[in-house]
Amino acid sequence: MNLLLVGVNHKTASVGLRERLAGLIPDLEAAYRTLTAYPEIAEIILYGTCNRLELLCVTAEPAEALDRLRAFLSQDPEVSPAELEESLYVHQGPEAVRHLFRVAASLDSMVLGEPQILGQIKEAFRQATGQQATGPILNRLLHKTFSVAKRVRTETGIGDHAVSVSYAAVSLARKIFGELTGMTVLLVGAGEMAELALEHLRGQKVGRIVVANRTLERGLRLAERYRGEAVSLEELEDQLLSADILISSTGSETYLLKRDQVKAAMRRRKQRPLFLIDIAVPRDLDPAINDLDNVYLYNIDDLQEVVEQGWQARRQEAARAERLVGAETVKFEDWLQTLEVYPTIIALKDKAAAISQAELKKTLSQLGPVSEEQHQALEVLLNSVTQKLLHDPIIFLKRDHSMKKSPHRELDLVRRLFNLDLEREAEGTEEEE
Amino acid sequence: MTENLLYFALAAYFGATALWLAFFLAQRESLYRYGAWVMAAGLACHTLVLIQRTIAYGYLPVAVFGEALLLFDWVLVAAFLLFNWRYPIRVLGALVAPLAALLVYGSLILPQGQAGAISPLLRGFWLTAHIGLTLGGYAALTLNFLGGIFYLIQERQLKAKKFGFFYRRLPSLSQLDTLNYWCLTIGFPLFTGGIITGSLYAQHTLGRFWSWDPKEVLTLIAWLIYAVLLHERLTVGWRGRRASWLAILGFLVLAVTFVGANLWLSGYHSFSKFVQP
What DSSP element (H or E) covers B219? Predict the structure, then answer.
């Protein structure tokens, strides 16, 4: 049994082609019906996101299965075979496993380490099992994939580093305050980025939101949108007493807050920490404010630097994640190969059992009447002889198999040595379990 | 037997050190859990050692410096595990475990005490209370010191806007500061209680509350530092960086009191004076 993966992603295919291919997905049921009907395909799963569409199948005849999948993908008349051929990547065996692990762990994503992809694959797996398209191999592979993706997330921290300015603000706030539940956010002025940061903060269940604006009308409108309170810009210093996080982005030409003002406020706040985010250009907040104890001032350049560091860190973590994926790929491949030896092991055991039973029958007829206990003793004897005799060949198959460079030679050797294939042909049981 | 148990505790503390350092690096939850069990096993052995010695001597084994270290270590580990169970700041383990291991090691290489070597004056309930409270205070204030170090590292990264190795691995400033505050509010009263019981006992045995012995003077200085710290925290809301620095300063004075005063200075309160010639 072989694993075969084909697909297109944001690196290989234009968005147009991806859209047209994604057109196959809305009718998943029909898609799975078509795919599972192909005799070459034993198990299959189909998953996609806005950036990719991939099909992964288990097949005994990879070449034929590949043709089937190609035909399946180009059934839409608007998909030109040449374009598809150019964009399609094909992975087999360990490479298919590695690819799936990498996709699920978000090592192959446009935004490295983004968390959504794992959920999408989980959903796709749910769909595929619902359509009875998967079997023992894909079930195991997908469960392994989920655990690999989870390990990558927890052990490498690939998703820990903020890679957008607004999220950088939130992650910094969390390093200062811990939980942000119940924190008061003061929004001074408004702008796309400030509102985005506010959105992220709301996702962290912050408490009060206060909007201070030069024109009260606009302030009221914003306050209404975020279910906050509107205050005028003159009250800024007073509002500073209750705020924990301040996001400033006004068009002011001068500093709205100077060091001494914040220093005085800190004394009145009894030094409760204050996180100031200045995304305005020119700056709204005096950079000297950052020298004050328990005040953390970040301007837009600082945040962009944080984002840049976040990218670097993610790339570094990705290298560690690749090693983890590599190790898990090898492990899965080992399991897959032991799977290949099972039919041989079963054939060996069957043959031994058949011989024992036949010989036992012969012996019993020669011995004449024996007691129940004697009969049992004979069976035990036969069992332990065959078991002990078969022990080493089985271990040889199981353990050594996955380490050999050309495992099929060993498998062949054992089958020839015990003359298993003739028997199996005679019995006509070629099915693998 | 006692020796073996102590070696076992030492090995456990070193094992926990390795596991918790690995946890700090790799951030794998299971490593932390294993570390906690190993640490608890070490503490169990450590406890048995102390019980055995107490029974053998007939008093709490603190007559020589090595024994005092061992008892302090026990209180520190117990306090940390208890604390961690209620208020988990797990990275702290990466500092506590090696410290615990080093203290056991220290007590092993220092001269050992013997049964009955202590002056009969230095036995009794008040003295035990004095030792227990003082060491409990020391343990909490040691955790405060370690938390202060972490706070300063994390604060420095947030202020300088350079995020290195520690940034992701250390908890938030507010968690670290809360830890420090808790340790201070628990440690300071214990420490104060230790001083009071000690001076009552001194009045009872020596006829004076206070002798201006070097150890006593240093203790007073440390106590004043912590008193200022607690006062400023409660009134003007001192926290974070300043509080951490002061906690570190206070701990250094305490360390000099506990270690230095016994090794280099000499007074009636030094361990060398406890053992009868």
Answer: helix B214-235
Tell me whether residue A50 is one of the annotated catalytic residues: yes
The reply to whether B27 touches chain A by the CB within 8 Å rule is yes
Ordered per-residue pLDDT tens for chain A, 433 residues: 789 999 999 888 888 888 888 876 667 888 898 889 999 999 999 998 778 899 999 998 899 999 999 888 888 778 888 888 889 999 998 999 999 999 999 999 888 888 889 999 999 999 999 999 998 899 999 999 999 999 998 888 788 788 888 888 888 999 999 888 889 999 998 778 888 888 888 888 888 899 988 888 888 888 888 888 888 888 888 899 999 999 998 888 889 999 999 999 998 888 899 999 998 888 899 999 999 999 999 999 999 988 988 888 889 889 999 999 999 999 998 888 877 788 888 888 889 999 999 999 888 888 888 888 988 998 999 999 999 999 988 888 777 555 555 556 777 888 888 888 765 444 444 444 3
- Interchain contact B48–A (C-beta under 8 A): no
Domains of chain A: 2-159 (3.30.460.30), 165-293 (3.40.50.720), 333-427 (no CATH)
Q: Is B214 found in the same domain as B98?
A: no
Q: Taking Cα atoms as reference points, which of B15, B143, B138, B146 lies closest to residue B68?
A: B138
* Preceding omega of A282 cis (within 30 degrees of 0): yes
In chain B, the residue whose alpha carbon lies closest to the alpha carbon of A292 is B159
Q: Are residues B265 and B162 in the same domain?
A: yes
Check B27 against A161: CB less than 8 A apart: no
Q: Which of B58, B91, B118 lies at the terminal end of a domain, its last residue?
A: B118
User: Cα separation of B133 and A418, whole Å?
Assistant: 78
A17 contacts A73 by C-beta, under 8 angstroms? no
Assess: ipTM above 0.90: no
Is residue B126 located within the same domain as residue B105? Answer: no
- Residues of A near B (Cβ–Cβ under 8 Å) read 154-155, 157, 160-161, 172, 174-178, 267, 269-273, 290, 293-294, 296, 298, 302, 305-306, 309, 313
- Which of A175, A269, A272 is the closest to B172 by Cβ? A175
Handedness of CA B155, B156, B157, B162 (dihedral sign): positive
Q: Cβ–Cβ of A293/B240 closer than 8 Å?
A: yes
Q: Is B86's Cβ below 8 Å from some Cβ in A?
A: no
B242 HSE (CA, 13 A, CB side): 14
